[in-house]
Amino acid sequence: MFITALSAFDDNYIWAIQPAANANQVILVDPGAAAPCHHWLNQHNYQLAAILITHHHWDHTDGVKQLVQQWNCPVYGPANSSFTGITKPLHHGDSVDLPELKLQWQVIATPGHTLDHLSYFGHGTLFCGDTLFLAGCGRMFEGTPEQFHQSLRLLAELPAETRVYAAHEYSLANLRFAAAAMPGNAAVAAAQKRVEGLRDQGLPSLPTTLIEERAINPFLRADSVSEFHRLRQWKDRF
Length: 238
Known about the structure:
Order of helices and strands: EEEHEHHEEEEEEEEHEHHEHHH
Strand order of the largest sheet: 1-2-3-4-5-6
CATH topology of the largest domain: Metallo-beta-lactamase, Chain A
Number of strands: 14
CATH class of the largest domain: Alpha Beta
């Protein structure tokens, strides 16, 4: 599987997935803007096979209508979403099956950031929208601390080598908070150095891996709901 980051807005990533580097069929994850997707797809003469949506926020969905108008592809996303462009509604435990591309993802309900949030796990990859970031997690707009903490517990149980494709380039800010929350953590310091090097070259800091997140992410490491809530409130003011 070959994955490309398409940049949108100030810090969003739209993930473009191909079964192989030379495949002309593409799946897009959270296309909040149509223009960068149209440009990239048309530039390479690719065909859009499907869209995966993690949650209803505009910066993850606003490009869907224009893309579907051109490619008439299915749109997979949460069944309980307020976003009306989903044509293949999904629940926790479902799977996204694209046999013609030999691709399949397990659907995991990860409420917390929003109530409708889903994550997609398959082929050693996790597309987790705004639930899990490098060294961080999303703001808690709709869910409860209990829901968000449980969502992170579910993701933490996935295989350690899982590559994590979050939807935003928040890594340096998250690492600054992680350094404050876990002073003296050598893994955080090493991650800061690595990410600074990537960003200095204009490269994405993502994907991260679950084994790294278990070492550097204070939210994923929180061992109780109260500890998670304390960290989330602190980060909101940080």
